[in-house]
Write a structure and sequence with these properties.
Helix content is 37%, strand content 30%. The chain is of the alpha+beta class.
């Protein structure tokens, strides 16, 4: 994602949400333990995750509900997730 897109997301979050707030992240990840661990490592150890496997078992949907302190923190997670090859953030 380029900086312009991150800035747009950040502004939308600032306009629509009072911080701190519960935020839900959704990712589509290739069904690979290394990729899943990379997503898990984006968040604190105590974070709860929910998973849903695609029909053909090639991908796993990962949902994370976590209290975030600011729009900047949300954008930082998306920025770090961008480095995981094959991941899609929804």
């Amino acid at each position: 994602m380029d900086q312009e897109k991150y800035n747009r997301i950040k502004q939308q979050l600032l306009d629509s949400t009072k911080w701190p707030s519960l935020y839900m992240f959704k990712f589509i990840v290739p069904n690979n333990e290394e990729k899943l661990n990379a997503v898990r490592n984006l968040f604190p150890k105590e974070t709860e995750f929910s998973y849903k496997t695609s029909r053909d078992i090639r991908f796993i949907g990962v949902t994370v509900k976590i209290m975030m302190n600011s729009a900047e923190d949300v954008v930082e997670i998306y920025s770090r997730a961008q480095g995981i090859r094959g991941i899609m953030a929804l």
